[in-house]
Design brief:
Elements (H helix, E strand, L loop, with lengths): L13 H19 L10 H24 L4 H31 L3 H12 L3 H8 L16 H24 L3 H22 L7 H5 L1 H17 L11 H24 L5 H23 L4 H6 L2 H8 L1 H14 L11 H45 L3 H20 L41 E2 L8 H9 L17 E5 L1 H5 L1 H7 L4 E4 L8 H10 L6 E5 L8 H10 L5 E5 L8 H14 L3 E4 L1 H4 L16 H16 L6
Parallel strand pairs: 1-3, 2-3, 2-4, 4-5, 5-6
Helix pairs in contact: 1-2, 1-13, 1-14, 2-6, 2-9, 2-11, 3-14, 3-15, 3-16, 5-6, 6-9, 7-9, 7-11, 9-11, 10-11, 14-15, 19-24
Length: about 625
């Protein structure tokens, strides 16, 4: 079933729904496997432009008809369109988690509340939850950030637009003001962006993403759908189609070729995407355009009509049905089933929730639902029993159980089942970064991007090691890394007595220069240096080269690549491989290749290691620093 304008006051544009379908499919492909469509996250930017255009177009048309904006009616329509399907989704997610792993519910209470109040984006910023660099089970509500940005726009924009229409109704002034807002938002994104650092703050922020909505709004001012006529000349139709096709090509090219860590995106790329999307929308809105007919084909239109439900359901389906570690790679069968389930659930949501409420309102839908309920359960006693069970189930879903401390099964855990921090020497241990620098392990709590190791960061304080004075194979060797390195510290000390290990939970490569400088100033930076960083996120080529240039006097630098089932894995490993080939004193330990097919070495997160994995990992590093450095 395809939609039609309810009040007959607006024109249905099928090509717009086709563009919605492409956008939501790009987002789904990105969340299924970023390697398929590395720029699939740009689909959200397309939605922002569409929302800005359609909402502003609707509001301006109402102002011109009525001479005012009925804000109460607008907001009620928005909530009626968006809220019921969202409540069904949230209830289903809570029920699923309650049945499968109810201990997670208390930890997700903030996510549920933020979703209900449409502040998910700022909740994630406040909690410093990275869109790109999360460890542990991701929240099934992580995608609500974009819905929050749009709903905040729906709340504030009608007020600002009404003020603008009252003070200066001329289109040129209105569009100019919107473009000034666009420039301010884009400038904020570019200025706040720090190459090599996690860009989640500017990715989530309403202030730094408003430009997409404002570009769509400005288009609605200068290109209102109600003023466009199908009786245009052939020349105009060709210009519109060619411009729209070029815009669509640019959008698709960016989706295929861009990556979430490309500095270009944050320094104008997102704006370029929004502008290309706006040109495409302009062509699709024109009633005489051929591009609108092509994108308005029935399959794309069917998906586009249900795109809101598809977006709502896709991420919980993927998150809740994917293995925690993801170390075995993508399963095409699982991805196909997840896509099928997503579209099926969205279709049910559209048929039984969204469209009935859209047509008849909440009251009519409630009456229809109650009639269905009574028909299926004609006996009043049975209805009371089922109703009571539903209330009990929902209450239990909301309360959940007290979360239990996670069981640490990697090499950072204590005891025989996992190696703890290095075995203490018989003599009292000095504090981190003190003493003679032999076998020192430095560890501190860091950003919550490495949650599997965080338990130990609090329970296993740094312990200094003193190796035997003879046969110190690790003398002159320094290892700098993150929690993966910390998990192998005991094994490294056994195989390389005298090694200096400086690890920190959540450490990024951008912090390595400071660590190296500090160790050098204390006389602890050896002539052979192991660098194990990249687990917690990507870095820039400039940052890596700067670090290696600063270590040019080192006899040997061993770079260790990563096995981390996250989007940045390929970016990190490619950059390390390239650097190892260009710097004469640098070699690469290919941990990604060496650990292939060895899932038994890993903890549940697919990143950190158990005792057997830690021993194997340490042996690879020990072998790399023992082997003489040959000419390149």
């Amino acid at each position: 079933m395809m939609p039609s304008p309810i009040e007959g006051k607006s024109r249905y544009m099928p090509g717009i729904d086709g563009l919605r379908a492409l956008a939501v499919l790009a987002v789904i492909a990105y969340h299924l496997h970023p390697g398929w469509v590395p720029g699939g996250l740009l689909g959200v930017g397309i939605f922002f432009v569409l929302s800005g255009y359609l909402i502003t177009d609707l509001l301006i048309a109402e102002w011109q008809r009525e001479g005012r904006l009925n804000l109460k009616s607008f907001w009620l329509r928005r909530f009626r369109r968006l809220l019921p399907a969202m409540l069904v989704l949230l209830s289903a997610v809570a029920a699923w988690i309650w049945l499968v792993d109810r201990s997670r519910l208390p930890a997700l209470q903030g996510d549920f509340l933020a979703a209900l109040t449409y502040v998910s984006n700022w909740w994630l910023v406040y909690r410093e939850v990275s869109y790109f660099e999360s460890f542990g089970p991701p929240s099934p509500l992580g995608h609500f950030w974009s819905l929050a940005v749009e709903e905040q726009f729906y709340l504030l924009w009608p007020l600002l637009l009404a003020l603008g229409l009252r003070l200066q109704p001329r289109r040129g002034w209105l569009a100019g003001a919107m473009l000034l807002g666009t420039a301010a938002s884009a400038a904020a994104m570019a200025l706040l962006y720090e190459p090599g650092a996690d860009p989640s703050r500017i990715y989530y922020g309403t202030d730094t993403r408003a430009f997409g909505l404002l570009i769509g709004a400005a288009l609605a001012v200068v290109w209102p759908s109600g003023k466009l006529s199908s009786g245009t000349s052939v020349r105009i139709r060709r210009i519109v189609d060619w411009a729209g096709t070029a815009g669509l090509f640019a959008v698709l090219l960016m989706i295929v070729r861009s990556g979430q860590y490309d500095a270009f995106l944050y320094q104008g790329g997102f704006v370029l995407l929004s502008l290309a999307s706006a040109v495409t929308v302009a062509a699709l809105a024109h009633p005489s355009g051929q591009l609108g007919r092509i994108l308005g084909c029935r399959p794309l239109r069917w998906l586009g009509v249900r795109s809101y439900g598809i977006y709502l359901w896709h991420y919980p389906v993927i998150v809740l049905t994917s293995p925690a570690s993801g170390s075995d790679g993508i399963s095409l069968l699982r991805a196909a089933l997840q896509l099928t389930a997503t579209i099926g659930l969205a279709a049910l949501s559209w048929k039984f929730v969204e469209e009935p409420i859209r047509r008849g309102g909440m009251k009519a839908w409630g009456t229809q639902l109650l009639g269905w309920y009574r028909k299926r359960l004609p006996q009043q006693g049975m209805r009371w029993v089922v109703s009571g069970l539903l209330i009990l189930f929902i209450s239990a879903s909301c309360l959940g159980e007290s979360p239990q401390p996670p069981t640490v099964t990697n090499a950072l855990a204590e005891g025989s089942e996992g190696i703890a921090a290095p075995v203490p020497a018989p003599t009292p241990a000095p504090q981190p970064d003190q003493g003679n620098g032999t076998g020192t392990v430095t560890e501190a709590s860091g950003p919550k991007t490495d949650e599997a190791a965080e338990v130990v960061a609090e329970t296993a304080p740094p312990v200094a090691m003193e190796a035997a004075p003879e046969e110190e194979a690790g003398a002159g060797i320094t290892a700098i890394g993150d929690s993966v390195l910390l998990g192998t510290a005991a094994q490294l000390e056994k195989q390389l007595p005298g090694i200096v290990i400086d690890g920190k939970v959540g450490r990024q490569l951008a912090q390595a220069q400071e660590v190296a400088d500090r160790l050098r100033s204390k006389g602890k930076l050896g002539s052979r240096i192991i660098i194990e960083l990249g687990t917690n996120g990507a870095f820039s080529k400039k940052q890596l080269e700067s670090l290696l240039h600063s270590l040019a006097d080192a006899e040997q630098i061993v770079l260790v690549n990563s096995r981390v089932p996250r989007p940045w894995e390929g970016t990190v490993n490619d950059m390390l491989k390239e650097a190892s080939g260009r710097f004469a004193n640098t070699t690469l330990v290919d941990w990604h290749a060496a650990s292939a097919g060895k899932a038994s070495f890993f903890a549940a997160d697919g990143v950190h290691l158990n005792a057997a994995g830690a021993e194997y990992y340490a042996s690879l590093l020990a072998k790399a620093v023992r082997e003489p450095q040959g000419p390149k």
